[in-house]
Write a structure and sequence with these properties.
Distance between the termini: 37 Å
CATH architecture of the largest domain: 3-Layer(aba) Sandwich
CATH superfamily of the largest domain: Nitrogenase molybdenum iron protein domain
CATH class of the largest domain: Alpha Beta
Number of domains: 2
Largest sheet: 5 strands, mixed
Strand content: 15-25%
Order of helices and strands: EEEEHEHHEHEHHHEEHEHEEEHHEH
Helix content: 25-40%
Length: 353
């Protein structure tokens, strides 16, 4: 454990559905078959606040918050950064699960929290006496926190990031920017800081309006969003957040536009020949034994002779994209939007590097 000084290395036409598909806890937990889009049963101005959440079996559970949480365990980059951006650092009694450094504008707040380099175990978290846990679907497996019912029985509310598979796979429950914005709004609502949450969401929406207005009369670029897995390429399809962000900024997916989620081969990529290719990387990302975490990820294509015929390679249209902006992105959602838009539309962003 430390105090936040060591980090792990390791659309707009979208209406926010304030059918808060969240995860909360109270002494009156009841499982429900209510759809994830069920409406909250409270006014937005206060408590009690009733939301719809999921258990580890991906079943909806309806729960009520009587007041704003005071002692929070936060797990995952998105959850930690959203809470910090909402001004809630003083509510965090413990946190873990960063994929990399927190955003620079949140670093000072992060330095004040009790951050664990690795998950310390359920008993340690219990000892911190949280009244609220926010994490991913995987946070609540048996080897970590255990299912949400364990915590609900102890009066501890919970919340799962909507795009973390708590609703099912991306094929069953497509991941979109709307869910990322809903996560921000839901946490804002839970803590009674809805106005601040709305400001954060407005930043995303305003940028999408700007981009969509720019591209409305232009031919959409054909792109691929790929992750090199050594012998094939993972496709970020239209049901993934990465694919959705790409489509929301006006691109057409050259691969992954349908529900086929299979990896593609080098030969298939060459045959498709997208106008632009975005290569996904994350902290610790390697192919073979070579580190490709960062801008050098593009070299997987640009320095491989077999891809010399690709239009994207010839025209300098192979770009890096950080996974943190296109998966459970939270406060990084705008980063993901800009990563695509600045690469595809340099005239719209003349000052971008």
């Amino acid at each position: 454990m430390n105090l936040g000084k060591r980090l792990l290395a390791g659309a707009l036409g979208l209406c926010l559905v304030f059918s808060l598909t969240a995860c909360g806890g109270s002494s009156q937990n009841t499982q429900s078959t209510t759809p994830a889009t069920s409406e909250t049963t409270t006014q937005s101005s206060g408590y009690p606040l009733t939301i719809t959440t999921y258990n580890y079996a991906r079943q909806p559970v309806e729960e009520t918050f009587q007041k704003a949480p005071e002692r929070v365990w936060a797990q995952g980059q998105d959850n930690i950064e959203i809470l910090l951006a909402l001004g809630l650092a003083d509510k965090i009694v413990g946190a873990c699960g960063l994929d990399g450094a927190v955003r620079a504008d949140l670093q000072d707040e992060f330095e004040t929290i009790n951050y664990y380099d690795t998950f310390p175990g359920k008993e340690t978290v219990l000892g911190l006496q949280p009244d609220f846990i926010t994490g991913w679907y995987s946070t609540f497996d048996d080897k970590r926190m255990g299912d949400v019912g364990f915590w609900h029985e102890r009066g501890v509310n919970t919340y799962m990031a909507l795009n973390s598979a708590c609703r099912g796979s991306s094929t069953d429950a497509p991941q979109t920017i709307a869910e990322e914005m809903e996560d921000i709004m839901t946490l804002g609502k839970i803590f009674g800081v809805e106005d601040r949450a709305q400001q954060l969401v407005d930043e995303i929406q305003d940028e999408l309006v700007k981009i969509q207005d720019y591209v409305k009369d232009k031919e959409p670029p054909r792109i691929a969003v790929l992750e090199d897995e050594g012998d094939s390429y993972r496709v970020y399809s239209h049901t993934t957040l990465g694919g959705n962000v790409a489509e929301q900024v006006g691109a057409v997916l050259a691969v992954g536009a349908d529900d086929n989620t299979a990896n593609i081969s080098a030969e298939e990529l060459i045959s498709v020949n997208p106008d632009a290719i975005f290569m996904v990387w994350y902290e610790g990302y390697t192919v073979g034994e070579t580190d490709y975490a960062g801008d050098q990820v593009v070299e997987l294509l640009t320095k491989d002779p077999k891809f010399a015929s690709l239009s994207a390679v010839q025209n300098g249209k192979v770009f890096p994209i950080n996974l943190s902006g296109i998966y459970c992105s939270g406060m990084r959602t705008l980063d993901g939007v800009l990563d695509f838009a600045q690469a595809l539309y340099p005239d719209l962003y003349p000052d971008a590097k």
